[in-house]
Amino acid sequence: MTETLNVSEKPALVLVNLGTPKSPTTKDVRTYLREFLLDRRVIELNPLVWRPILEGIILRTRPAKSAAAYRKVWMEQGSPLMHYTVAQATMLQDRLGDEVVVRPAMRYGQPALGTVLDELYEAGHRRVVVLPDYPQYSCTTVASIMDVVADWMKSHRDQLEFRTVRSFPTSQAYIEALAVAVEDSWAKNGRPDFGAGDRLITSFHGIPLSMHEDGDPYRSECEATAKLLEQRLALPDGALQVTFQSVFGPAEWLKPATIDTVSEMGASGVGRVDVICPGFMADCLETLEEIDIQNREAFMDAGGREFHYIQWGNDSEGAVTALQEQAERSLAGWL
């Protein structure tokens, strides 16, 4: 007798972010880092070479240091990245209505993307949009998510119908969300004096230079975002600078490095620096600890007077509108 499948006509949308440790403890951070750093999209070294380095050196020293950094930014509700990604998914659900099911997922850690896809399948959904919570494409982020989707399809006889979002670096709603956040910050803290040398920095997560040279389009998409933001804010030439943060390991990464840039600016007499991180839809360790603590200290210690980290994503109306624009475009014809 053939089993009757309980198939739903209702599509689903999965909002996927990077991931986070379960807690800011050394043990949980080690578990998270192991999964993250074993991804061949993130570290392209041969596993026979990389695995002994990872297990023998990095995972013996880095988790404790990272756990201490996580504790500086951990919220009462838990990880900032998890909290705000769930909030975005909830707000998207409210905006899209009951005709679609919206679920958050993580590439590393929980709720794992593959597990969420399994749960949607078991619930009868057969049409799924996968929306990475990354405005710019990189093989280290978006491609890694798509690898999970491809692996899920290869391991299932009865497949889901997928639609995926590649990136949205020049989306009008996205650029407007960034611009409004900057303008709101300036309304509160005063506008920088660009004529006197003050600067607005757009700090994006870096990637190794070798990935860029091998064809990863990430840098060009970051620069496209920054150019449109510059135009939207009507900034004078030289007022906005693109930098890259979160260097890891001995390899050369995209430059200029954010922390080097703010240090040089502080030492050269730049009085004020405002920093926004357009590549991060949700605040996390890299924005709250690296930018708002480490880079602030570097700028002030070098002689700077005023440093502002501009929050823009999270559960803001603008950020969710940018995600809603991508969701509605991808769901067209299914609703």
Structural class: alpha/beta
Shape: globular
Query: What gyration radius follows from the Cα positions, in whole Å?
Result: 21 Å
SSE sequence, one letter per element: EHHHEHEHEHEHHEHEHEH
Main sheet strand line-up? 2-1-3-4
Mean pLDDT: 96
Straight-line N-to-C gap: 33 Å
Overall strand count:
8
> Can you summarize the main beta sheet?
4 strands, parallel
Number of helices: 11
Uncertain spans, ≥5 residues at pLDDT below 50? Answer: none
Throw out a few tags for this protein:
335 residues; alpha/beta; four-stranded parallel sheet; 8 strands
Structural write-up:
The protein is an alpha/beta fold and 335 residues long. It is built from eleven helices and eight strands. The strands form two sheets. A four-stranded parallel sheet has the order 2-1-3-4, with helices on both faces. α5 (142-154) links the parallel β3 (127-132) and β4. α6 (172-189) packs antiparallel against α11 (317-331). The longest helix has 27 residues, at 47-73. 42% of the residues are buried.
Condensed summary:
By secondary structure, this protein is of the alpha/beta class. It is built from eleven helices and eight strands. The longest helix has 27 residues, at 47-73.
